[in-house]
Amino acid sequence: MSCHTAFGLLKQARESTGWAAFIWLAATAAAAGAGIWSTHFIAMLGYAPPLSIGYDVGLTLASLGVAIATAFGAAMVIRTASSSTAIVASGIILTSGIAAMHFTGMAGVRIPGRFVWDEALVAAALASGTVLTCAALFVFTRRPTRYPRAVAATLLAGAIGTLHFVSMAAARAVPDPSIAAPDDGLARGALAVGIAAVMLTILAFSALTLFADRLRRVNRALASHGAALRVSEERLARALDAGSDGLWDWNISTGQTWLSDRWLTMLGYEPGELEGHVRTWQRLVHPQDEAKALELLQAHFDGHSPVYEFEHRLRRKDGSWGWVLARGKVVERDNLDLPQRIVGTHIDIEGRKIAEQQIAHMARHDGLTGLTNRTSFHELLRLALREAADAGGACAVMCLDLDGFKMVNDTVGHMAGDELLKLVAARIAERIHPADTVARLGGDEFAVLVKSNPTNEGLGSLAKELISAVGEPFAYSGQTIEVGLSIGIARAPQDGLVEQLLFSRADLALYQAKAEGRNCYRIFDAALDEAITRRRELERDLRMVLANEGLELHYQPQVRASTRELVGFEALVRWRHPARGSIPPSEFIPLAEETGLISALGEWVLRTACSEAAGWARPLKVAVNLSPREFQQGDLPDLILGILTETGLSPNRLEIEITETAIFADMGRALSILRRLKALGISIAMDDFGTGYASLATLQAFPFDKIKIDRSFIGQVEVSPQAAVIVRAVLGLGRSLGICVAAEGVETIDQMRFLVDEECEELQGYLFGKPQPIGSFAEAIDGREAFEGAIAPAPVRSAAAQMAFAS
User: How far, in Å, CA of 639 to CA of 634, rounded?
Assistant: First the structure.
């Protein structure tokens, strides 16, 4: 757009002289320079090196000035250019400006490192940019095509883009720990605002160009076509004659009426087919509308309303009814101020009425399934509860949620998911009583308001019938799709007569149904209320303990299998509640994920682990787990780099453990984050390997340094040949891929010997120590005591085995 605008302004400059030409040249330079600068920095907003990035204000603005200045110089040359030499010279000047702007802008990029340039690619960028720029100027000046400005703008845009992206391909960001991460400068938000301002300036130039060009054309048109106004007036008159309004004129004293041809044809009659009398009109008015129409007419006759206006129905020739908007006004009165004549129009509003009905239906119904929507359902529920409270009746709410619907979307596609929702809605609607209401609340959530038989037996029977109906396979595009249905039920008045309370209790029952295996129903009881109360109290306490740093870290040692040498620790968060005692991570970590506290919890664990590890006597590794939600944070690499800088821990001592679940939510984003972490020198380990459903594909695609065999396999190697085979296969896979393999959950001497014999590289488990505060491992960390002596092993099977371990 800026290139097209610049050539338009340059065209004005070539056609002007004196100060006018100078002004047009300045506008050309501003448009072209701003476009070059904006292209560069909009593209830079998409540039995500594995380091935090900032922008220097001075150099950023200087690069804009360079682009505008060189564009002005090139425009000065090309304004009067006629020879090929002058055109090429102008192209070289403009290309030099583009390149100068690019490298000035790149000089203003601030990263904790430096850029290294590939000189061959830089030369290629300059050469290709020069060729495209000169081609654009040749097309603009020589006009060899039908649309020279558009073609020239396209070529120049290609030159700018080619030079930028080839130059960026020549740049490689190299981390440098001696350079601090940028903490000030031009933030991305400020940069975006700046670019927006520049682009608005371009729009202004564009409008100016269009205005000047249009004004010139209008003046030329007015000078050469003075009769155009008369032609336009004639067309307007014909348009009014053929308008869509039906005209009518009623002589009140005689009852005679005049009806225009359009008035008749809009109802399907031929011109002159109806008698021109008021009785004819009255016979055509819908019986339900006639009294109101006459009432409003009389009010206008009596002077109570300035005009007569009413929407009503008229009978068409085919017997159907059509909606019209009637407007009229008395134009003659006699000496007694009685109305003598009224004229008006009839406007066909059938289309608007249909649209209004559709809008009214859409406001109360779900657009996909046609069921009642959430808003309307809650209105009906409030009304039913009010009736139950006033008349002593009863009703119930059923919350329905599909089991396995997300898998359908992920595997078959969203179109299949939408079709499935329609079929499910139809099956549910077929099986409810006419007195009941089924609604779609959103996504795969449905609700039923039961008024016909809200007893426990009736509700249970209906729930079973719905589960059975939805559980039957669906056919879609030659495929068979199966989903389940979980249902939660709350009854009124037993479970409450307040809409939100009843609905929340039905939702709690649904949650329990899903927790107990899905594809079933549960009716709310008081125990559920106690459970949710306990959960809310636990959430409140978790928020407080995070704010007051009341958590603690325990560490479990990791040893080298061949020598039993201590190589590092895995950091594990622990919570000792003052009233409830030790709360297991399996309880409070899922709660943190559900309530959005997991990011704050994860950041605390990471910062505390790095801070404590930085003070260890030996440079042992520390491993920290990241939850799937933490891993979706776009600023995760910057956060970790900031913590490492703050605590002074070397990146090569930190190991991040993630599961496949964290990766599959957004594989492209996950790969980008992992690469940025690897570029910082941080190790990446896949936790719980073997329990996912795409582990081999994940290993191939992602840059893991370590895989950790899940404890469920290690615990079975002594008794299950299948488990032993799986562990051998994983160890062989790790050796083939050059990836370190660690075993979790090692608890016995026999398990350790098996893993050592199979050349497992690292071991972790109760055999080498339970998770404890780091102070318990002080002597082992200092190296003052052999590791086996520093850590009391877990009980082993026999005294002989114990002696073997000690030796």
Answer: 10
Here the tokens at position 50 are: 């594995």
Please report the pLDDT score of residue 437 as a whole number.
95
Phi, then psi, of 220 in degrees rounded to 5: -65, -40
Burial 190-206 (b: 16+ CB within 10 A, else e): ebeebbeebbebbeebb
| Mean residue pLDDT across the chain | 84
Query: Could you tell me the CATH number of the domain that includes residue 714?
Result: 3.20.20.450
- Of the candidates 683, 682, 702, the one whose C-alpha atom is nearest the C-alpha of residue 692 is 702
CA distance 400 to 446: 5
Same domain, 581 and 720: yes
Longest CA pairwise span in the chain (Å): 129
The token pair at 79 is 């304004």
Taking the C-alpha atoms of residue 470 and residue 463, their distance in angstroms, rounded to an integer, is 11
218 within a domain of the structure (yes/no) = no
Asked, for residue 219, whether it belongs to a domain, the answer is no
Least Cα distance to 698 among 733, 727, 735 occurs for 733
Average pLDDT over residues 359-385: 89
pLDDT, tens only, 715-732 = 998 888 898 999 999 999
pLDDT (mean) for 82-89: 82
d(CA 257, CA 348): 19
Q: What is the predicted pLDDT for the residue at 799?
A: 35
CA angle (784, 786, 790) in 5-degree steps: 85
Structure tokens of 254? 């005689």
Q: In what order do the strands lie in the sheet with 437-442?
A: 437-442, 445-450, 395-403, 484-492, 521-523
Domain co-membership, 672 together with 770: yes
Position 542 in a domain: yes
**Of 300, 327, 354, which residue constitutes the final position of a domain?**
354
CB 348 within 8 A of CB 354: no
Same domain assignment for residues 645 and 699: yes
pLDDT digits (tens, 9 = 90+) for 621-640: 999 999 888 887 878 899 99
Which of 524, 553, 574 is the C-terminal boundary of a domain?
524
* 683-689 and 654-658 strand pairing: parallel
Angle between helices 57-79 and 2-14 (to 10 degrees): 40
* Helix runs in 580-737, H state only: 585-595, 598-614, 628-631, 636-647, 660-664, 667-679, 695-701, 711-714, 721-737
How many alpha carbons lie under 13 Å from residue 149 in its C-beta half-sphere? 12
How many CA atoms lie within 13 Å of 100's alpha carbon, on the beta-carbon side?
18
CA-to-CA distance for 637 and 684, rounded, in angstroms?
13
Q: What SS3 string covers 294-343?
A: HHHHHHHHCCCCCCEEEEEEEECCCCCEEEEEEEEEEEEECCCCCEEEEE
Quick one: 333 and 270 in the same domain? yes
> Contacts for 176-182 with beta carbons within 8 Å, 24 or more apart?
176/112, 176/113, 176/114, 177/112, 179/111, 179/112, 179/113, 179/114, 180/112, 180/645, 181/51, 181/52, 181/111, 181/112, 181/638, 181/641, 181/642, 181/645, 182/52, 182/53, 182/54, 182/110, 182/111, 182/112
Task: Give me the half-sphere count of Cα atoms (radius 13 Å) on the Cβ side of residue 368.
Answer: 20
Total of domains in the chain: 4
**Which of 744, 656, 736 is closest to 700 using CA atoms?**
736
pLDDT at residue 798 in the model = 37
Q: How far apart, in whole angstroms, are the C-alpha atoms of residue 377 and residue 364?
A: 8
Q: Measured between alpha carbons, how far is 572 from 554 in angstroms, rounded to an integer?
A: 5
Q: How many CB atoms lie within 10 A of CB 649?
A: 21
Mean pLDDT check: name the lowest of 212-216, 536-540, 624-628.
Answer: 212-216
Mean pLDDT over residues 70-78, rounded? 85
Backbone torsions φ then ψ of 571, nearest 5 degrees: -85, 130
SS3 per residue for 624-655 = EECCHHHHCCCCHHHHHHHHHHHHCCCHHHEE
The answer, as to whether pTM is greater than 0.85, is: no
pLDDT confidence of 802, banded at 50, 70, 90?
A: very low
